[in-house]
Amino acid sequence: MKKILVTGARGQIGSELVTKLRSIYGVANVVSTDIRYSEEESEKGPFEVVDVTDEKRIYEVAKDYQVDTIMHLAALLSATAEKMPKVAWDINMGGLVNALEVSRELNLQFFTPSSIGAFGPTTPKDSTPQDTLQRPTTMYGVNKVAGELLCDYYFERYGVDTRGVRFPGLISYVAPPGGGTTDYAVEIYYEAIKQKAYTSYIAEGTYMDMMFMPDALDAIVQLMEADPTKLVHRNAFNISAISAEPMDFAKAIQKHIPEFQLTFDVDPVRQKIADSWPNSIDSSAAEAEWGFKAKYDIDNMTKEMLEKVEEKLK
Ligand code: AKB
């Protein structure tokens, strides 16, 4: 039985991951932590305030609860990181090295997400291979590549069981993303229900990888449970479910809301980030080494997103 500490647990992934992990491993075996206190969160199960830039505090909580795994999610996303590059470096890299150090000291299994942002304009754009050129041009991407290498280093040098995936844009109706480049693919569903219209800050024809949150959560659990002898790669596996541009979302939404209208007002900062990322990544290493398989495509995801967002907004 695992005992897991989750950092950044109130963010977009953490809000759902903690619930999923508790349903598998038991409420008491998942310690939710975040920089912000939450009454609601502390009523659901073990919850502690942890600032990941404070290594001593991560150590204290990990030791007190005798966890055997850290899932380190606390990080700034791409668009926010571009606004505050130095803060992003401090949080994204400082938090990561602290969580890795605690994992080394206490001999813990370790997961942290990388991203399609770890690729750059010189990376092959279509079917981006698992092992390829990674020269990102954003602070977020620099953090993600350095993070992948750092996790490999802790595995090779200290034997820490580090594992990770390169997440595409994650789409969910539970918690909103904050400060990402792919956030339009969540906003579009809310606006489809509220206004029957959406203005995209990403230009028509800009393809990026996307995935519905249930597939992302399954991937984390599956990778962490995977037989280590089968893992050729560790940090981090390409995984994707959907390669789509804004019009693909509009067309999928129009199957349920025919009057839905998509217009464009491009944000140059986020567009530049999107243009530097792949159109579609190749998940075959994850499929071969630990059986990754997404259940959702754009159509079944859209149906569920529209139903759930409608219920939520009632
Ligand atoms: C972002 O847009 O920054 C994230 C990501 C793809 O890593 N959703």
Give structural attributes.
UDP-galactose 4-epimerase, domain 1, Rossmann fold, 3-stranded parallel sheet, 314 residues, 6-stranded parallel sheet, binds 2-amino-3-ketobutyric acid, 2 domains, 14 strands, alpha/beta, 45% helix
CATH topology of the largest domain: Rossmann fold
User: Which regions have little confidence, pLDDT < 50, spanning 5+ residues?
Assistant: none
N to C succession of SSEs? EHEHEHEHHEEHEEEHEEHEEHEHHH
Mean pLDDT figure: 97
Look at the helices and sheets and give the structural class.
alpha/beta
> Span from first to last CA?
39 Å
Please state the overall shape, judged from the principal axes of the Cα atoms. Answer: globular
Instruction: Let me know the number of strands.
Output: 14
- The neighbouring-strand order within the major sheet is 3-2-1-4-5-7
Assign the CATH superfamily of the largest domain.
Answer: NAD(P)-binding Rossmann-like Domain
Report the β-strand fraction as a percent range: 5-15%
In CATH, the architecture of the largest domain is 3-Layer(aba) Sandwich
Report Rg. Answer: 19 Å
**Main pleated-sheet profile:** 6 strands, parallel
DSSP helix count?
Answer: 12
Q: What percentage of residues falls in helices of 4 or more residues?
A: 40-55%
